Amino acid sequence: MTAIKPAPDDDRPPPVRAPFGAATWKEITHLLTNLPESIIGFVYTVVMVSLGAGLSVTVVGLPLLACGLWGARQLGRWERWRARVLLGVRIEEPTPIPGPKRSGGFFPWLWTSLKDPVAWRTALYGLVRLPWGVLTFTVTLTGLFVLWPVLPWVVRALANVDRALVRGLLVPSDELERRIAELESDRGVVVDTAAADLRRIERDLHDGAQARLVALAMGLGLAKEKLLEDPDAAALMVDEAHGEVKLALQELRDLARGIHPAVLTDRGLDAALSSVASRCVVPVRVEVDLPARPAEAIEGIAYFTVSELLQNISKHAAARSAAVEVWRSGERLLIRVSDDGRGGARMDRGTGMAGLAERLGAVDGVFVVDSPEGSGTTVTAELPWRDRSVPRTTAARGA
Hints:
Elements: H1 22-54, H2 61-87, H3 100-103, H4 106-114, H5 117-143, H6 151-169, H7 175-226, H8 231-259, H9 262-267, H10 269-278, E1 284-289, H11 296-317, E2 322-329, E3 332-339, H12 353-362, E4 366-370, E5 377-384, H13 392-398
Parallel strand pairs: 1-2
Antiparallel strand pairs: 2-3, 3-5, 4-5
Helix pairs in contact: 1-2, 1-5, 1-6, 2-4, 2-5, 5-6, 7-8, 7-12, 10-11, 11-12
């Protein structure tokens, strides 16, 4: 008889097997090791709380308790690993507590550590586990010699209680915990993106306008030397330098547009997106229906999202036409960019869409690509709507 294996992404208990299967032996191992693990957890928790509470009237009491709670977190990490390996329970790790430097100082870190719900739930787990550990060890050990025929069913019942304890006390099921983890990840994306943008600006300045200005300075120096002995050659050099100045100014304008275009600042998304669309290799229909201008940061992200998507259309889509639609729905700014090209766009094919998705995700946005082969591409993006701040001088004048 062939045993049925559960799906890899399913953490429900596997079905009971008779005779004993690998899952049953793992559960037996877990139940037998419950006693030494629960003794360690119980003793640690009692000592930690007793010392921390007893010394709380001194300067070392609360820091000692905070360090003890950090240790409780490490015990919880070990128990989650044990549950994953022996019980098949998939458990996410909680967000780590930032150190004193990242928390803003010693006292903010101390307060955050003392009210850490993950550590306190782990401490409670260590307390309630001792009687349960004694019971599971005794029943399982006795069952190996006395209850052999029904032991798989007894072990499954006891292991299910362990699973419930782990899910109830060791799983960071709190939505706030998950949100903190997401924000930590998003902050890393924002920092990496900002660093990459700074490197791009530095490279563009070094390879473009700076190199051209250096050549311009050298040309003007040579023209100065030839001014008296060969005025015609000097005039020709000055004329060439004039052309270099124009090119340098154009490169600086293009660089400034890449950082934040003046038309976006002065006239908003409608005019800025129309300007971008005019540079696309295919005709682009632009429709912007916004009751007001969003916050500067949201407006900038929307502009650069559309700009990069239109560049993708120019380079990869082989389209005949495209459309850009921007509107507000409730508290969200919605963007749709579509084309009638070859389709087949993917997040992992080097078109920059993965980077766009990360940037939008960092500000609680959404990025969806629908691109069937041969049927064009539609990209829908959502950003949180935030009202544009009113300048303080304007507000004061209005008051």
